From TrEMBL:
This is ABC transmembrane type-1 domain-containing protein. The chain crosses the membrane at residues 12-38, 68-93, 105-127, 133-155, 176-202, 240-261. The lineage of its organism: Bacteria, Bacillati, Actinomycetota, Actinomycetes, Micrococcales. One of its GO terms (cellular component) is plasma membrane. The keyword Aminoacyl-tRNA synthetase does not apply. It is a multi-pass membrane protein. Keywords: Cell membrane, Membrane, Transmembrane, Transmembrane helix, Transport. One of its GO terms (biological process) is transmembrane transport.
Length: 276
């Protein structure tokens, strides 16, 4: 009697194991950082006892708090600008025929495949040629250049699911073009815009490469500041900073996902991507 399991049953056992191993490999460093951020001792290799000592030290570091504040308000400004411009761009592309939107859509997609180091160097050369002093303004400009593409992708995926007959009905009832946009289109794409805003905020806040090339000699964004700390030696404060950044990213990610899930954007975006 052959007791060998069918191939599909073997795959059913192997796939969960492989998935668990991959997730463990990805999450192990994050768990390590979070646990050792509460370590009393200075060692980052042996845990002694639980303590919030390094969080207290972190919030007493004025230079680090200035970098944190800089990264926060830069990310907020970038998210606002990118959401506005990216939404307008998505609206424009959605009104073009597929052949007409191919070229601008392809150029927009270059952002996803362009190495970030190339983008950072290009921005540095551009700012130097234009005679601009590196400052928070140049950081904002650099971040907006790639965040717009992400916003446009999210919002355009939502626009692909809208019913054109609703707009036509609004026009038949006397609504102007501005009225259709304000009363019909924007309320329907608002959840997608919120998700895009959160995504742009996270991308800007967490960016290192473009921030490194676009920041000046004054206050550095938080990722660049952390890089400077690492060059001088790893301290447990790094774990505390990392834990705070992980918590902030998870919070914004959960908020965006809940909004998208409640409005059905996740399903709609998946369907639009499959349709393409």
């Amino acid at each position: 009697m052959n007791n060998e399991r069918p191939s599909w049953q073997r795959r059913a056992v192997v796939l969960p194991v492989v998935t668990a191993l991959v997730l463990a490999f990805q999450l192990a460093p994050i768990v390590f950082v979070v646990i050792f951020s509460f370590n009393e001792g200075r060692s980052i290799g042996s845990f002694t006892t639980w303590s919030v000592r390094w969080y207290e030290s972190l919030f007493a570091n004025e230079s680090l708090l200035e970098s944190l504040w800089l990264s926060t308000w830069v990310a907020f400004v970038v998210a606002v600008i990118a959401t506005f411009v990216g939404t307008a761009l998505a609206l424009a592309l959605s009104r073009l025929r597929r052949a007409e939107a191919a070229v601008p859509g392809g150029l927009l997609g270059l952002v996803f495949v362009t190495p970030e180091i190339a983008l950072g160097v290009s921005l540095l050369l551009l700012f130097s040629t234009a005679g601009l002093t590196l400052s928070p303004v140049t950081i904002i400009v650099g971040h907006v250049t790639f965040c717009i593409a992400y916003v446009a992708f999210v919002v355009r995926a939502r626009l692909e699911t809208l019913r054109p007959d609703v707009e036509e009905a609004a026009r038949d009832l006397g609504a102007t073009l501005f009225g259709v946009v304000r009363l019909v289109i924007l309320p329907q794409i608002a959840p997608a815009a919120i998700v895009a805003f959160a995504l742009a905020f996270l991308l800007s806040f967490d960016d290192f490469v473009v921030s490194f090339f676009a920041s000046g000699v004054d206050i550095s964004p938080l990722p660049v500041y952390i890089y400077g700390m690492l060059r001088l030696g790893v301290t447990p404060e790094i774990n505390a900073i990392g834990t705070i950044m992980i918590a902030a990213a998870l919070l914004l990610g959960v908020i965006g996902f809940v909004v998208a899930l409640r409005r059905g954007i996740v399903k709609q975006m998946t369907g639009a991507a499959q349709g393409d």
